[in-house]
UniProtKB/TrEMBL annotation:
It holds the Pfam family FixG_C. This is Cytochrome c oxidase accessory protein FixG. NCBIfam families: ccoG_rdxA_fixG. The chain crosses the membrane at residues 51-68, 95-116, 169-186, 206-223, 350-370. The lineage of its organism: Bacteria, Pseudomonadati, Pseudomonadota, Betaproteobacteria, Burkholderiales. Keywords: 4Fe-4S, Electron transport, Iron, Iron-sulfur, Membrane, Metal-binding, Transmembrane, Transmembrane helix, Transport. It comes from the Bacteria. PANTHER family: FERREDOXIN-TYPE PROTEIN NAPH (PTHR30176). Residues 267-295 form the 4Fe-4S ferredoxin-type domain. PROSITE patterns: 4FE4S_FER_1 (PS00198), 4FE4S_FER_2 (PS51379).
Length: 480
């Protein structure tokens, strides 16, 4: 039985010379990667990609600077453990809402993938967006595809060094600005900018600015398609969400094959040729370097650059557009029209995803609307479980934490129920500042003969006239 040996490269000469037995197979552990030089492309889908670049970056870079009253509109303040999202103030105890948002985002991605494939990857994924930005900078400084290839192949010179240095400086600047903005979501960005100007940034702020900046610089400047092909898990499990009615970038094999070069005057049908002129431009514009004519591949991110460039070629040679287009496997096999494709969108998988997504969204927003905008936590005084005071009463001491999740100071009324004759002997009214928490000592007393010895369930109620009431359960201990 033949054995398998691992090596960096296969050497046919070694087999011929007898150095390696003929029944052994040399398998490379690593695939050599060539740098991809995507060609510039114009067209409808290229405009859509740049629309999403502008939209996402205006949102990302601009949102931290937006003010809401006297504070930052969106701020995840880890120091004070407050999460501000416009008029909403959340505490760590509200992590359920964050979990709900993540689950809804995942379901939305599943639904969109089942309907339209990897268009999220091709248009709005941060990896795609920043790669577009970094490629734009590279093209502006080093030129288009052919110019960049010639520059990389040329020996080092003053002109080459200058262009490369300018590109690196621009890339680093974008990366650092991205890292600065990212940290601005966790540290008030106006304070962060002041600390940056004064060179008084804290160690963690400095670390995360450089870490996130370096990640942006490395992923968008160098790794690019490697992130999409090897690092992103979405590329691996997307096939579980695809079916033959999923909208993908497709090459019409029946129309395009056999491919081949020809002049404009040639009757390609008479010559036995399909519509594909084998210009390879669809490969040259692909950011992941694949050939869409080889069929559906997991590396395809549905950016539609090949559609734009192929439509341009079809216009030049006088053939109909759509040799490469958004379609489905069933549509290609059965020759469906656009309306027929749309009619197959509402299939069981899509309906199930839509139902789950709708239910989760309604539940999340209903919970947010109905939530009481303050939290109450009760802790018994561990120093004394129970004590006798005034000779005839039993007293238990508690610490009640009231967290005001509104943007205004609130006054709360504390009361107790659950045992006949139990009384609150501390001040029942407390005021808590806006978006702050306050620990309030609470003393409860019960007549000595008011209950049997043991632990008795009680309820401490905290009520606000403006924002509702919260009732928390605790126990009152009667000593033996």
């Amino acid at each position: 039985m033949p054995t398998t040996t691992h090596s960096k490269k296969t050497t046919a000469a070694a087999v011929a010379a007898g150095a390696v037995p003929a029944d052994e197979v040399m398998v490379s552990l690593y695939q050599a990667q060539k740098k991809i030089y995507p060609r510039s492309v114009t067209g409808l889908f290229a405009k859509w990609r740049w629309f999403f670049v502008y939209a996402t970056q205006i949102f990302f870079y601009g949102l931290p600077w937006l003010q809401w009253g006297e504070r930052q509109a969106v701020l995840f303040d880890l120091d004070t453990r407050r999460f501000y999202i416009f008029g909403l103030v959340l505490y760590p105890q509200d992590v359920i809402y964050l979990s709900g948002i993540l689950i809804i985002s995942a379901m939305l991605l599943f639904l969109f993938t089942a309907v339209a494939g990897r268009q999220w990857c091709g248009y709005a994924c941060p990896q795609t967006v920043y790669t577009e930005i970094y490629l734009w900078i590279e093209k502006k400084i080093e030129g288009d595809r052919s110019a960049r290839m010639r520059l990389d192949a040329a020996p080092m010179s003053a002109a080459k060094f200058t262009r490369k240095a300018l590109k690196q400086l621009a890339w680093i600047a974008v990366g650092l600005w991205t890292g600065f903005t990212f940290v601005g979501y966790f540290t008030p960005i106006h304070e962060l900018a002041l600390h940056f100007v004064q060179w008084t940034l804290g160690p963690w702020e400095l670390f995360w600015i450089f870490f996130y900046g370096f990640a942006t610089y490395g992923n968008a400047g160098y790794m690019r398609e490697q992130v999409c092909k090897y690092m992103c898990p979405y590329a691996r499990f997307q096939s579980a969400m695809f079916d033959k009615d999923t909208l993908i970038v497709t090459y019409d094999t029946a129309r395009g094959e056999p491919r081949g070069a020809r002049s404009r005057k040639t009757d390609h049908r008479a010559a036995g040729l399909g519509d594909c002129v084998d210009c390879t431009l669809c490969v040259q514009v692909c950011p992941t370097g694949i050939d869409i004519r080889e069929g559906l591949q997991y590396e395809c991110i549905s950016c539609a650059a090949c559609i734009d460039v192929c439509n341009g070629v079809m216009d030049k040679v006088g053939y109909p557009r759509g040799l490469i287009r958004y379609s489905t496997e069933n549509a290609l096999a059965q020759g469906w029209s656009g309306r027929q494709i749309l009619r197959h969108v509402l299939r069981p998988r899509v309906l199930i995803y839509s139902g789950i997504l709708a239910a989760l969204t309604i539940a999340l927003f209903s919970s947010l609307i109905l939530r009481t905008p303050f939290k109450v936590d009760i802790v018994r005084d561990r120093a004394t479980l129970a004590r006798i005071v005034d000779g005839s009463k039993i007293e238990n001491v508690y610490r009640v934490q009231i967290m005001n999740a509104t943007e205004k100071p609130q006054t709360y009324q504390i009361s107790v129920s659950g045992l006949q004759g139990i009384q609150l002997v501390t001040e029942p009214r407390v005021t808590v500042a806006a978006a702050e928490g306050l620990w309030v000592p609470v003393r409860l007393q019960l007549p000595y003969e008011g209950a049997k010895p043991g632990s008795h369930e009680i309820h401490i109620d905290v009520k606000s006239e403006q924002t509702g009431q919260v009732s928390e359960k605790s126990v009152f201990i009667v000593p033996r």
